[in-house]
Amino acid sequence: MRDSLSYQAPERLQELIRAEIGDAAGLEILDLGCGTGLAGEGLKERAARLVGVDLSSEMLELARERGIYDQLEVAEITGWLDQTTAQFDLIVCCDCLVYFGDLRPVAAGAARRLKPGGWFAFTAERGEKYPFHLADSGR
Question: What mean pLDDT comes out for the span 55-68?
Answer without folding.
Answer: 97
